[in-house]
UniProtKB/TrEMBL annotation:
Gene coding for it: tsaD
The EC number(s) this enzyme carries: 2.3.1.234
Database matches in SUPFAM superfamilies: Actin-like ATPase domain
Protein residues bound to substrate: I136, V137, S138, G139, G140, D171, G184, D188, N280
Cofactor binding summary note: Binds 1 Fe(2+) ion per subunit.
Cofactor (UniProt): Fe(2+)
Function, as annotated: Required for the formation of a threonylcarbamoyl group on adenosine at position 37 (t(6)A37) in tRNAs that read codons beginning with adenine. Is involved in the transfer of the threonylcarbamoyl moiety of threonylcarbamoyl-AMP (TC-AMP) to the N6 group of A37, together with TsaE and TsaB. TsaD likely plays a direct catalytic role in this reaction.
Catalysed reactions listed for this entry: L-threonylcarbamoyladenylate + adenosine(37) in tRNA = N(6)-L-threonylcarbamoyladenosine(37) in tRNA + AMP + H(+)
PROSITE patterns for this protein: GLYCOPROTEASE
InterPro entries: ATPase_NBD (IPR043129), Gcp-like_dom (IPR000905), KAE1/TsaD (IPR017861), Peptidase_M22_CS (IPR017860), TsaD (IPR022450)
Organism, scientific name: Sporichthya brevicatena
HAMAP family assigned to the protein according to its UniProt record, in alphabetical order: TsaD
Keywords: Acyltransferase, Cytoplasm, Iron, Metal-binding, Transferase, tRNA processing
Stretches assigned to the Gcp-like domain: 26-314
Protein's name in the database: tRNA N6-adenosine threonylcarbamoyltransferase
């Protein structure tokens, strides 16, 4: 119809997300997380995540439709994360989406998880600026992209991480500091009490001769681990807040500098920062300051739409429907290592 209603399903990791978007506007959502079950393992356990999706998905769907004030008869299309992500977790969402597609008689659209992170921003801030530079920072990805039109044009990779993703670095350093999993939010919290200039940790790939848009965080992670070990060997206490704040600033510095350099190189006045690490308060603060100074318009999704959620997948689904894209066949398979 002229005001298409698109339901989105996200199950690529530990969050079971459902979102309902009508004519580009978010009208209902539900979210369940199995993170509590993974925390004691220090990482997301795929089989545990899949089982949790299986239990949470139908109730989440019912709740999201109820909150949207609609029934399944009002739904025009269903979008689902096809990858990348944990294979067993993706399969639960795909199976459910196919079942709904058949039961409701609506087309099915497979969505790339990272396109979802980008499209999350359109829900709060309106149509994406075309073109724009996008920094995607999540637990599995760190990439700088040049995006002309998210669903109609191929996305250009300006650079990616050569080793760890930014979120992965946060999680590993969190472990080194004895903080609860996932480390990102924990470091964000404790860093507020620390001094970001206390320890000079290395900024990866930031010398003039380095590739300008590639990232590296494994050297930083190792530097933090060495620093902490040296302290422990010397029998000295670990200033956890200072280490967290200094580590966080090393990551944020590099992310913001390279993003603005990419805007400069492309002569692009619009920058989006998306993905779980875009929830980081220091990143949001520093990016806002430096983007303003550089004359670059900055958009970052609202906090709860930075980490994985259903509405971001519905948002891509809406863009696909509006652009007249062909739906996917029911043979659509999970693509755990899908490339954007
Ligand atoms: O996008 P996301 O929810 O899942 C993936 O697709 O990976 O991102 C999760 C990542 C985790 O590594 C988590 O530690 C990190 O995002 N994260 C944060 C913050 N909130 C989540 N990192 C830094 N500061 C935060 N406030
Ligand atoms: Zn994600």
């Amino acid at each position: 119809g002229p005001m298409p209603v698109v339901v989105g399903i996200e199950t690529s990791c530990d969050e079971t997300g459902v979102g309902v978007v009508r004519d580009g506007e978010l009208i209902g959502e539900a979210l369940a997380s199995s993170m509590d079950e993974h925390a004691r393992f220090g990482g997301v356990v795929p089989e545990v995540a899949a089982r949790a999706h299986l239990e949470a998905l139908v109730p989440a769907m019912e709740l999201a439709l109820e909150r949207a004030g609609i029934t399944s008869a009002d739904v025009d299309a269903i979008a689902v994360t096809a990858g990348p992500g944990l294979a067993t977790a993706l399969q639960v969402g795909l199976a459910a989406a196919k079942a709904y597609s058949i039961a409701w008689g609506v087309p099915l659209y497979g969505v790339h998880h990272l396109a979802g992170h980008v499209a999350a921003d359109a829900l709060a801030h309106g149509a994406l600026p075309n073109p724009c530079v996008v920094l995607i920072v999540s637990g599995g990805h760190t990439s700088l992209l040049y995006c002309r039109d998210l669903v109609n044009d191929p996305i250009e990779h300006l650079g990616d991480t050569l080793d760890d993703a930014a979120g992965e670095a946060f999680d590993k350093v969190g472990r080194v500091l004895g903080l609860p999993f996932p480390g990102g939010p924990a470091i964000d919290r404790i860093a507020k009490e620390g001094n970001p200039t206390a320890i000079a940790f290395p900024r990866g790939l930031s010398r003039p001769q380095d590739p300008p848009f590639e990232f590296s965080f494994s050297g930083l992670k190792t530097a933090v681990a060495r620093w902490v070990e040296a302290r422990e060997r010397a029998g000295e206490p670990i200033p956890v807040a200072d280490v967290a704040a200094s580590f966080q600033d090393a990551v944020v510095d590099v992310l913001v500098d390279k993003s603005l350099a990419a805007c400069g190189e492309r002569q692009c006045g619009d920058l989006l920062i998306v993905g779980g690490v875009a929830a980081n308060s220091r990143l949001r603060e520093v990016a806002a300051e430096r983007a303003a100074a550089a004359g670059v318009r900055l958009r970052i999704p609202a906090l709860k739409y930075c980490t994985d959620n259903g509405p971001m997948i519905a948002s891509v689904g809406h863009m696909l429907v509006v652009s007249g894209a062909a739906p996917d066949a029911l043979s659509l398979g999970a693509d755990p290592s899908a490339i954007l």
